[in-house]
Amino acid sequence: MASRTKSARAPFGVLDLGSSKMACLIAEPTPDGLVLLGQAMHASDGIRMGEIIDMDQFSASVGKTVQAAERNAGLTIKDIHLVTPGGQPAIQICRSRIDLSDPIISRRDIRRLSAKQSEMSAPEGRRISQSHRLQYLVDGQRHIQNPNGMRATELAADTAILSHNSLSFDNMSEAVVQNHLQVGHIHHSGSVAGLSCLTEEERDLGVIILDMGGGTTAISAYLDNKIIYASTVQMGGQHITRDIARVLSLAIGASERLKAIEGSVMMGGAEQPRMFAGGFPSQGDNFVLSHTVSASDSLSLPNGETIERQLLSDIIRTRLDDILEAVDERLEQSRMKQLCGNTIVLTGGASQLTGLSDYMASCWSRSIRIATPHGLTGLDGQITGGPFAASLGMALFVHNNHDDETALRVSTPASRTGLFGKFGHWFKEHI
User: Fold this and answer.
1) Helical H runs in 159-299?
2) What proportion of the chain, given as a percentage, has pLDDT over 70?
3) What's the pLDDT at 339?
4) Which residues pair with 81 in a beta bridge?
5) pTM attached to this predicted model
6) How far apart are CA 130 and CA 411, in angstroms?
């Protein structure tokens, strides 16, 4: 059975199990915060759209990535914490109650309630990854932060439980064990990306964060400084690359370079939104294009053909619309768009497309910004940008929750509490 890291204050590792790349960080807690000791990246093998499809290849990729990070840090680790967009993540609400024999709530009563919370279980076929308390309730009064010393006859608490598909959970853990490592925390990539990319005020007021990776787009929502929603759409930047390769008859590598260097989601002609009236920009959201361009420019492809730049943008935008439609559907089903304010934050490697934030703002009529991670020092210049948001966020999560038992992964028998879509309804009623 996977277990928590035994020495939480010693250097620890974090492994981001992405569909296009694996990233391993080794960090050390210090009085001044976390210091990054080593890092490594390796192409992901044996995994597609967040799910393992070849255990041998996947396990080998895990081993190579961790070993490279250990060499970079000059030390060996025994425990590793995992961050993944896969495993069909979902959050449910569970309420625990105790009757009080004394009219004054004591710390003993709070410990009794916590013990009852620890007995909560995941739905059948799922495994609990993380849990955190949303609120206490004192005789039905909500939004209680600390009930100690209050008068009441009943004490209750609502807990948010993040769970994953048991098969995915166990296979990820097995790959780590095959490399003679122990599994600590396992968390959803979109959720922990919020810890490294969002401000405390954003998490408090309500915000949606999209971690756009190679094979997946991880969705999370924060409100009152708590994660209240997690899901994953199995489409990402790799799907855009493959579309380019198919339509233009290019190799995957050439298509990826074309997307990164010349690609844009801008529209031209009559379709162009009002904010883009001046044509294609010379500078994208996150990088500078090769030269000042317009929609009618021609591009020379590696296969010798010439196309209009607008064709490349149309290919990119068609798949991007599919991704955004799937994300929007999840958010509407869970009512997160109504609950979490007007801000959507983008991170991850696929969020670097030129014009993406402006395009999304025009489609969704919301404030869109692209965020970069923060929170670690050391190895200056070696690890920056959206592709590392989830792994850096996971390092912060481990550091901040090393002695918080309510945040630990739990392995308990299954229950039959409903999962999908209930979270938004609960928040509409209780928040």
Assistant:
1) 166-178, 189-197, 200-205, 237-248, 252-262
2) 81
3) 84
4) 14
5) 0.82
6) 10
Mean pLDDT, range 314-337, rounded to an integer: 93
Determine the Cα–Cα distance for residues 292 and 33; give it in Å rounded to an integer.
43
Burial environment of residue 253 by CB neighbours within 10 A (0 to 12, 13 to 18, 19 or more):
exposed
Query: Under CATH, what is the fold of the domain 90-163+409-426?
Result: Dna Ligase; domain 1 (3.30.1490)
**Every domain range in the chain assigned CATH 3.30.1490.110:** 90-163+409-426
**How high is the mean pLDDT of the chain?**
83
Q: How far apart are CA 92 and CA 158, in angstroms?
A: 10
CA separation (Å) from 415 to 18, 116, 169, 177, 222? 30, 15, 17, 27, 26
The separation between the first and the last C-alpha atoms of the chain, rounded to the nearest angstrom, is 36
Residue ranges of the chain assigned to CATH 3.30.420.40: 199-370
Q: What is the pLDDT of residue 338?
A: 82
* Cβ atoms of residues 65 and 15 within 8 Å: yes
Helix (DSSP H) and strand (DSSP E) numbers for the chain? 12, 19
What is the Cα–Cα distance from 374 to 371, expressed in whole angstroms? 9
Nearest to 339 by CA among 417, 212, 430: 430
The CATH class of 199-370 is alpha beta
Query: What distance in Å separates the CA atoms of residue 219 and residue 229, rounded to the nearest whole number?
Result: 8
Identify the pLDDT of residue 414: 35
Amino acid 378 reads: G
pLDDT at 427: 53
* pLDDT at 79 exceeding the cut of 60: yes
